[in-house]
Amino acid sequence: MASLRAFLVALFIFAVAFDLSSVNAKFSKSMYFYWGAHHSSILGNGDDLQLVLNQSSGSGVKSKRPFLFGSIQMLIKLVPGNSAGTVTAYYVSSSGDRHDEIDFEFLGNTSGQPYTIHTNIYTQGNGSREQQFRPWFDPTADFHNYTIHWNPTEVVWYIDNVPIRVYRNYENEGIAYPNKQGMRVYSSLWNADNWATQGGRVKIDWTVAPFIARYRNFRARACKWNGPVSINQCAANTPANWWTSPAYSKLSNAQLDQMKRVRDNYMIYNYCNDTKRFNGQMPPECFKAQF
After folding, report:
1. Is 101 a catalytic residue?
2. Which of 109, 164, 241, 248 is spaced 20 to 30 A from 197 at the CA atom?
């Protein structure tokens, strides 16, 4: 009976953490424009956001406060049609030369060609940990849930509650991990036609501008960063810090199966397989179990 009760509690925690209906924040209360506010907008009741890119500028928003550990979610409907050269970015980041950052970037393409879902993680200013995927759905036809979940044990990237990538904490073995800097939530839409589509060979077609990305239901179920004191407070194994529950220390077998299917069928690049890029000196985490 005790084991059944523990299982049901863990299941409830998981459901609450990823239930879109619970505790949605509003863009109007939680975020602000730091770029391109003149042609972008927060709509409706403050729950909907529209970012715009045209020849004058792109646009971007960021959260009013930083966080350390928890779950960050948004529903995003990407730029439709010919989106070549555009990048829609959604990420959490601290500031400074030794910043931490966890990324989703959506690289546009010509009409009829799929987006590239680009993921990366920076620790203490060092990135170059890219993994890329093709979507198994049309990300422009409807809104999809993109989640960044991180805790003292691991970072997980989710799409529609399906995990696609994990980065585990091996700090005790000398591999940096994002656990000591508060990170704000950002999203932006910008011109990256020098690299985003086919390595920059395909440029933005400004005749089909403006390019518009749409967002709903931003929510941050995360620990509020209040300076260095939060390093221990946000990592403490307490009931309030739900992300420290054993249920989140690793993926379940069902989640591992989901992730394997995505990675087997839709992954198109993994830095840990790119021996030529690193001249054989592979990043140390590539030799560690991530799942």
Report:
1. yes
2. 164
